[in-house]
Write a structure and sequence with these properties.
Elements lengths: L2 H15 L3 H6 L17 H14 L4 H9 L8 E4 L8 E8 L3 E10 L2 E9 L1 E8 L2 E9 L7 E12 L2 E13 L13 E5 L3 E5 L9 E2 L4 E2 L2 E6 L3 E9 L5 E7 L20 E7 L3 E4 L2
Parallel strand pairs: 8-16
Antiparallel strand pairs: 1-2, 2-3, 3-4, 5-6, 6-7, 7-8, 9-14, 9-17, 10-13, 11-12, 14-15, 15-16
Length: 287
């Protein structure tokens, strides 16, 4: 598929949902990664060979090449050659294994003197936005490594100094990777405010205060405590067996929850948290 057709499809989608990044992330499986094949330049094979010669001569990506060897594959199968900045030079995206960390993503911009690395992240890119013929946003999922229970969603905004892009983190959310219940359907987003002094934030749309979760070290499905006045956005609802209505919500990032599994000190950019709340003691508010 040509880039122009993909841009039109992305514009249509964004006109529908605006900047509701949570909806964007929920459209994909947790470990889905973006397929760059339709974006590659016609001479992508030659560009890949040139890139491989460049990193070999500069002794770059040594750890990545060792990881690929252990998986019995080669670097050329894990890179894509795409013109990201519309300078008629194909750039390189590496998404593949790294020793000890699962997957990593690197973006290298091709210049007259070689390839300059401009972006690094863990795990995978799941969506991209274009502005004209320039890469505009990256949507990144970090599904964790090893025993990490979290799934982190991030959006990076690209800006350009000449032909070289830089990427700024503009949005981030954290949710439980395996234990959270996802809604089947969404409604028009609603802004809300907590009216109880303290309110339980749960991973599922039902009350469970007894089940022992040895992996998380918690009892029940409460993953944090919200305070009166905390705000957020609701995207879906679910009625449990007792008739209680639950809302699937994104808590505003300036609010820190109490008694939560999230260590806010580990996040230089404070994230939104995703989960479920009972709709009884909340009020709808205007944006």
């Amino acid at each position: 598929m040509q880039k122009s057709v993909l841009i039109i499809l992305l514009i249509i989608f964004n006109l529908t949902f605006g900047q509701d990044f949570l909806i964007e992330f929920d459209r994909y499986n947790p470990i889905y990664t973006f397929k760059w094949d339709g974006y590659e330049v016609p001479n992508h094979y030659e560009v890949k060979l040139e890139f491989i010669k460049y990193i070999d001569s500069n002794k770059l990506l040594e750890e990545e090449k060792r990881a690929l060897e252990m998986m019995d594959t080669q670097l050329r199968f894990e890179i894509r050659a795409v013109d990201l900045n519309n300078d008629k030079l194909a750039d390189i995206i590496y998404q593949g294994p790294y020793t000890g960390e699962g997957s990593v993503v690197y973006i290298f911009i091709q210049t007259e003197s070689g390839f300059q690395k401009v972006f690094t992240t863990q795990q995978g890119i799941m969506k991209v936005d274009w502005k004209g013929e320039h890469l505009d946003k990256l949507y990144v999922k970090d599904w964790g490594c090893c025993a990490d229970p979290n799934l982190t969603n991030s959006v990076y905004q690209a800006s350009y100094s000449g032909s070289i892009p830089s990427f700024k983190l503009i949005w981030k959310s954290v949710e439980l990777r395996s234990f959270i219940t996802k809604p089947k359907h969404t409604f028009t987003p609603k802004r809300f405010e907590i009216v109880n002094q303290k309110y339980k934030f749960r991973a599922n749309p039902w009350i469970d205060d007894k089940t022992v979760n040895e992996f998380l070290g918690i009892t029940g499905n409460t993953i944090g405590i919200l305070k009166k006045g905390y705000k957020g956005t609701a995207y879906a609802s679910h009625e449990d067996d007792t008739g209680r209505i639950w809302w699937y919500v994104l808590i505003d990032r300036e609010h820190e929850l109490e008694n939560t599994y999230i260590n806010y000190k580990h996040h230089r950019f404070k994230p939104h948290l995703i989960g479920w709340i009972s709709s009884r003691f909340i009020k709808e508010i205007k944006n």
